[in-house]
Design brief:
This protein is mostly helical and 327 residues long. The protein has a domain of 191 residues: Orthogonal Bundle (Cytochrome p450), CATH 1.10.630. The chain has a two-stranded antiparallel sheet with strand order 1-2. Helix 10 packs across helix 12. InterPro entries: CYP11_CYP27_families, Cyt_P450, Cyt_P450_sf.
């Protein structure tokens, strides 16, 4: 073997080992922590391989994403496809993603969300009552409850107050879909897709979770179509209505049923995990800090319109009714 071939073989071996290590770190959820450590140690821009650069600099990111001639979406984001279909975050083309973001941004303005506030408050009251009714007799998966609560809030924003989705398996679907995304990031599709035919229940459900999430979006789209009444529309425009309405001001998107189902599913998905994770952390901090709960309660009491709302007592009930947590 000549010296050039020997050098090439060493580079190939190094590249393969690097990919294996990145895959292992992704699999165990350590990649983001390692990236943070590298950025802390070496600065806001770090090259970790010939084709991978970590960037944590506002001006650099702003310059990159303001460019309309660059494909700024990494190919790995394809792992977030729903039911085999693309939605906003999987489209590298700026003009496609932009027209899909606009209806979501319009439907979630402060004014429109204030209109839906009573529904959100009822949903939150329900979750607090369910958790506090246990009186600490057993442990409870708060993530499970928060995923259901987020779906109940999201379905109103996406399809209107008349939409009622079956949320019985939704928390399980989202949890398994998160694992499926890791599989897609680390492994080729053919290596795990066959597991949906296996004898055990968990791997097939995990592989099917993408299709189940896609079906949820399809079910949500069908309900506004069958229950909509032009005389009885909600005052706040829904994402689905803005997606499908076309006029001189709003050109709309030329959707297929599969396309709009995937889009709705994806929007619900991203709202669920970010919101649930943040609330789990907040509830944990409140539950282990009675003094902080009292300060929050007093602050809420001082705000006009909140002093007589039952939801203001939610942190207290969570602390008094929940299991003891370490200080």
């Amino acid at each position: 073997m000549g010296p050039h071939m020997h050098t090439f073989a060493l580079f190939a071996m190094f590249g393969a080992l690097l990919l294996i290590e990145l895959g292992r770190m992704r699999w165990h959820g350590k990649l983001s922590f390692t990236a943070d450590d590298l950025l802390w140690q070496y600065g806001p821009i770090v090259r970790i391989s010939p084709n991978i650069v970590l960037v944590n600099d506002y001006q650099a990111l702003n310059s990159i994403f303001s460019r309309k001639d660059l494909n700024t979406a990494p190919k790995a984001i394809r792992a977030l496809q729903v039911g085999g279909h693309d939605w906003t975050v999987t489209y590298p083309q700026n003009h496609i993603a932009r027209e899909r973001r606009l209806p979501v941004m319009t439907a979630t303005t402060t004014k429109n969300l204030k209109y839906l506030l009573p529904i959100f408050e009822d949903n939150i009251t329900d979750i607090v009552k369910n958790l506090s009714s246990l009186h600490g007799t057993k442990s409870e998966d708060i993530f499970h409850h928060l995923r259901i609560n987020t779906l109940r809030n999201s379905q109103v924003v996406m399809g209107g107050s008349g939409v009622k989705l079956d949320h019985s398996i939704f928390p399980h679907v989202v949890g398994e879909y998160n694992f499926l995304v890791v599989w897609r990031l680390c492994l080729p599709e053919w290596l795990f897709s066959w597991r949906k035919f296996g004898p055990f229940s968990c791997p097939p459900f995990r592989v099917r979770s993408s299709d189940l999430l896609f079906k949820l979006g399809g079910d949500l789209c069908k309900q506004p179509e069958t229950t909509s009444d032009p005389i009885d529309h909600d005052d706040a425009p829904t994402v689905y209505r803005l997606f499908t309405t076309k006029d001189e001001k709003n050109k709309g998107v030329n959707w297929t049923h599969a396309g709009i189902s995937a889009e709705v599913s994806g929007q619900i998905l991203v709202a669920t995990e970010t919101t649930s994770s943040a609330l789990v952390f907040i509830f944990y901090e409140l539950a282990k800090s009675p003094g902080l709960i009292e300060k929050l309660y007093q602050e809420l009491q001082a705000i006009d319109g909140y002093n007589n709302i039952e939801i203001s007592h939610a942190p207290r009930r969570l602390y008094q009714g929940g299991p003891a947590l370490p200080a």
